[in-house]
Amino acid sequence: MTHFADRLLDQCRAKGAPVCVGLDPVLERLPEPIDTGNPAAAIERFCLGVIDAVEPYVPAVKPQSACFERYGGAGVEVFHRVVRHAKSAGLIVVSDAKRGDIGTSSAHYAAGLLAGDNGCDALTANGYLGGDGLEPFAEVAQRDGKGLFVLVRTSNPGGDAIQSLRLEDGRTVAEAVGDVVATLGQRDVGTSGYSSIGMVVGATKPEDAVALRERYPQQLFLVPGYGAQGGGAEDVRACFKPDGTGALITASRSVIYPGIDDSERAGGTAWQIRVATASEALRDAVSDILSHPTS
Amino acid sequence: MTHFADRLLDQCRAKGAPVCVGLDPVLERLPEPIDTGNPAAAIERFCLGVIDAVEPYVPAVKPQSACFERYGGAGVEVFHRVVRHAKSAGLIVVSDAKRGDIGTSSAHYAAGLLAGDNGCDALTANGYLGGDGLEPFAEVAQRDGKGLFVLVRTSNPGGDAIQSLRLEDGRTVAEAVGDVVATLGQRDVGTSGYSSIGMVVGATKPEDAVALRERYPQQLFLVPGYGAQGGGAEDVRACFKPDGTGALITASRSVIYPGIDDSERAGGTAWQIRVATASEALRDAVSDILSHPTS
Question: What is the CATH number of the domain that holds B139?
Fold first, then answer.
């Protein structure tokens, strides 16, 4: 069984850049006509189409659980089928579910979402409950070759009101959470030098990203916020080590909803070609950032 | 439309005490023989039986989403049916899902879990992403007469490593999150004086509960940790105001898994009588605590 971090880094090398396409399906933006009586089927068709379109260009996808849970049990069934389709296409699947609870409940989430052949490759989690709330996820990750990305510094403006507060001991709240994550991750470090337990660090907070990158050498960063949320090339560069490893850059809306004109809404595969092109552009942009260490 | 806090307080008065039974169904502890080929059906039968048993004695139930999600889309279907059954029995339903994301994703969670006739009465949420991540939940709560309980001080031991850290400005991290919650809640205060936006404050941290109770007069506290997790009478009392309002005490394992001897596992309703008795005992214990302000 290959360690999650080693597997992710291999895939990133094979595809040419450490990038990830977010799957955030919302009915209002789907490119094809929708049977409004069956929204879950509509988002399933869209997600499978996006996966097929981006598969040649990117190593990973990140389905947003909220978009599927919106449609109840049927939506959750679709979520699991989308995960399965992406895995069978050889993509690494990071389920963006941001789960976190006391240990006994986290164990249920880990069993249902992350464990075994039916689980995704990695899960996002919330560390506000501390180490014992994350422990069951870490155990499954180590046992099954899976990964975890714990929210440390999020990309939204409101995160500052908590995460960038300064503690008496000089650390920020984000660093206090990060320290719990780094300690938890020490026991499962791959040959790449990275742990199966990584962090979410937004591309919209570059000064923080520099400090966190320095502080947590064993943690992979899952980096949202590039593109639609405003993160640019310099912001992205701050999340990597000088050797070009250490981060997985995600983009959602800019890739899965490229400008689609109304003539294309009639269906067909024209929209998939645009999505494929957008994912190729994401890959090339990040590859370009990494090949020019100072701009 | 009645305000959530007013509705909850009315129900607590009608049933005799502000208590809530947690629905945390796990296969290993179910009282009846299980068809292992259909675990979702087994937890559904159990939860419906618990609801029917406790309904005369308690105003509210709190299904733990993780226990249902463990069984994929079928489990989530069961979750929604359990919510529906409890609501139709006149119980207030607090879905313990601890969701939290950036605003666009939180809006999907709010739509899928909280909004409208199909949604539960209240939802637990994680505030690590700050006010903009909670905003969509607060909007739905205000619009639809629903409630929110944001994690401030959790009952597990590991929570200390984050929540009790002291900030440069003298507050704890829990208070920093609490301040965001209190600000958010100001716009929707019921005639009871309580907001639709409350907090989760564990019964295992009584000194903190005293300070938080003082600091947040408009917030209802959802209080886990009584019973199985070790919180006692004094710990519970700290979560209430002198007038006996301000908290909803939850207990799960001590009520839904009372000692059941093996002869009862053959089925029938004997286990429901034990569960009913345990819920009656929970109600009486909390009622007793509240009628003796100093012990």
Answer: 3.20.20.70
